[in-house]
């Protein structure tokens, strides 16, 4: 009785010696702004999961779906998710008893009581069971950590899918912009060829100088050099898209022209809503939860563990005797294992887990701040590019009128070719600038969809 009292009295002392002071999380430094810096132009607050369809181009829809099905990075992310789902089953298996079957024949020679050698044969078969009593929740904490890590990989897969879809959409819109610029350059090249032929004819008949003809020829070659430059950029952009699609190099089908695409108007909502709309924020949040659970597991490793064991078996001098008339064997027992001295290894591991948790918290705050910045940047880009495009379109129409008047004055002999040449350059630059702004504006909408999480929600 006195021994039992002594053990019960020593148990709290043992637990207090094994316990470790709590490691509180760092103080939060994240401040959620009440509103976006740039006002939104309105639109539907609900963002469709297939947000790229809002541009109204079936070819874009087809490319994004191909990328989501065949992209190599997404295949890696899906495989990683399967790995972490299997880790949950590994951690959860410790909740149940472990059963093992053993069968071992042995042949031995020993010295008998009279000094003569004695040879014996024995066959032992047994079923062994072991079970750890999760008294302090270490196993449950391991399962919880594995579950949060798996959830973080689900969010990582969604984040990777969003990045692939956004990069595909941006690349396709850039491709359409290059196509429009190439069409403009070819049309301008035909106009330059006609201007050069007219300048050469007027030089040959004595109506103009060689200087005007040479200037027309120089402008012709300058415009002609733009065509292969754009063709090279188109080939590079197609190859970049093929990499996203997991396809071999080659041309890509187009759908609508750049000017025919719709300009979507996604509404960003409030900044606080963004915390549940972006998969990378969900991934960072779940990693905080996983690291916190891992910290609890590391602290629980300092506490004693209780293990129950049992075995039931049989022994015979031969396999036939083992099956026909065996000798029964059995055992049952339990053990308590408590760390007494490990040179501070377990405490250091718990401290390491604490620093991992702290880094996860800092990473979460950094990801949220980046999300706020990306959304505000996209809103500011859309608002600024829309205003720029209005002015660029007005400049393009005015430059076109200037070119028409200058061409008529030159053909009727009221002005020199320099006047028409200057008008041609201005009109070409105005048209090119309007096309580039149009493509940039559509790409800014893609950036906004990316910043808003692309329609992803945790429920999915």
Automatic annotation (TrEMBL):
Membrane topology term: Lipid-anchor
UniProt-listed InterPro entries: MdtP/NodT-like (IPR010131), OMP_efflux (IPR003423)
NCBIfam families, per database record: outer_NodT
Alphabetical list of PANTHER family matching this protein: BLR4455 PROTEIN, OUTER MEMBRANE CATION EFFLUX PROTEIN
Chain coiled-coil ranges: 375-438
Signal sequence segment: 1-21
Keywords: Coiled coil, Lipoprotein, Membrane, Palmitate, Signal, Transmembrane, Transmembrane beta strand
Tagged with keyword Signal: yes
Name by which UniProt lists this protein: Efflux transporter outer membrane subunit
Organism: Massilia arenae
One GO cellular component term: plasma membrane
Top-level taxonomic group: Bacteria
